[in-house]
Specification:
- InterPro entries: Cupin_2, Homeodomain-like_sf, HTH_AraC, RmlC-like_jellyroll, RmlC_Cupin_sf.
- This is HTH-type transcriptional regulator NimR.
- Helix 1 packs antiparallel against helix 2, helix 3 packs across helix 4 and helix 7 packs across helix 8.
- The protein is built from nine helices and twelve strands.
- A hairpin with a 2-residue loop joins strand 5 and strand 6.
- The strands form two sheets. A six-stranded mixed beta sheet has the order 1-3-8-5-6-12. Strands 2-9-4-7-10-11 form a six-stranded antiparallel beta sheet, covered by helices on one side.
């Protein structure tokens, strides 16, 4: 996503306790108010941001992801990024040594956090962390839980091709727009066949799938900011909240009301 020029409250995530060969995963406690954001930055290690409560949006140069409660986002080393806090958030940042990471080193992803994974993170975040050998066992199991965590389609990539970028930016401005790809082709000066190829080559999915992913990401942002389900459904072009909830459940396995509620 393009970098924003607005100036909300700045949030500085400190302290930063880096990982090491002795301690390959460190956990840092974080709490941030709504409408704040970090500066653009990167780390020499991998980072996993786990939202215990509240919702965050993470942006890189060409994509953005929404991170609801009890989900996490993985950020590989050296990826320039910015985090925006959409609602008051209590979260954990895990710094992960490159050699230990079970997650890809070339792509961000949002993932589910199982109750077991959450408990393991909290155990390592304790002011009095467990002693060996218990700490090592917790760490090994946490790394395995990270590897098995289910990825979620809460990211939105943008293309390089100017014609496809024009289409995508227009949909971002108006997610409820229901024009066919053929109509969009007329607007942006490319054939429908060319746009179909560009969607596959640059974004890895078809037009309908990208538009649905946009709507899901936009819905997550609106719900996190406190909008009612009926209002969200209307803004996204759905006839009623039930139709929107059914689409959301097909994508994530649970309705919005449950998906955005912190796990007990």
């Amino acid at each position: 996503m393009p970098r924003t020029t607005r100036t909300p409250g700045r949030y500085e995530p400190t302290p930063r306790r880096p990982p090491s060969a002795v301690e390959p995963v460190t956990v840092n406690l974080r709490r941030a108010p709504a409408a704040s954001e970090t500066a653009w930055h990167n780390h020499p290690w991998g980072q996993l941001i786990f939202a215990v409560s509240g919702t965050l949006r993470l942006a890189t140069a060409d994509a953005a992801w929404v991170v609801p409660p009890y989900r996490a986002i993985w950020i590989p080393p050296r990826v320039e990024h910015q985090a925006a806090i959409l609602s008051d958030a209590d979260f954990r940042t895990l710094y992960v040594d490159t050699g230990t990471s079970p997650l890809p080193l070339d792509a961000c992803r949002v993932m589910d956090v199982s109750p077991l994974m959450g408990a393991l993170i909290e155990a390592l975040a304790d002011p009095e962390p467990p002693a060996e050998p218990r700490r090592g066992l917790i760490l090994a199991l946490l790394v395995e839980e990270m590897r098995l965590a289910r990825p979620l389609a809460l990211g939105l990539s943008l293309p390089q091709d100017r014609r496809l970028l024009s289409l995508c930016q227009a949909l971002i401005e108006e997610p409820a727009a229901d024009l066919s790809l053929a109509r969009w082709a007329e607007r942006v000066g490319a054939s429908e066949r060319t746009l179909t190829r560009l969607f596959r080559n640059e974004l890895g999915m078809g037009f309908a799938a990208w538009r649905q992913q946009l709507r899901l990401s936009h819905a997550a942002t609106l719900i996190a900011q406190g909008q009612r389900l009926g209002e969200v459904a209307g803004q996204l072009g759905y006839a009623n909240p039930s139709a929107f909830s059914a689409m959301f459940k097909r994508a994530f396995g649970s309705p919005p009301s449950r998906f955005f509620r912190q796990q007990e």
